[in-house]
Amino acid sequence: MEELIKKRTKQIGLEVIQLIDELPNKPSAFAIAKQIVRSSTSVGANYRAACRAKSTPDFINKLKIVEEETDETHYWLEILEESGLINTARVEPLKKEVNEILSIVVASIKTMRAKNQKS
After folding, report:
1. What is the residue range of 93's domain?
2. CA 38, 40, 41, 47 torsion: positive or negative?
């Protein structure tokens, strides 16, 4: 499961990179592009860091960063869509994948917290 999530979180960053190349050449698109590339590539990078955590609390803390970056990526996708910089059909599958990853990460955090409290 860990390797699958690594692959999926990395893919989010790669897909966002392709997406921003489709944006119009406008100052607003450029500003949002910088933000979403940073947050989306951070999802995979921070998940990899979480997989190398030294302890359960460290793992949970790193997963919280993944949660934040994933949520931020979803926010920027919404901004791109709602501003009309990109059409809904193009961004919807990516929003769905980001939401799925967010759900997995949140569930993992809850599970790890419960296990950590028992020990």
Report:
1. 2-118
2. positive
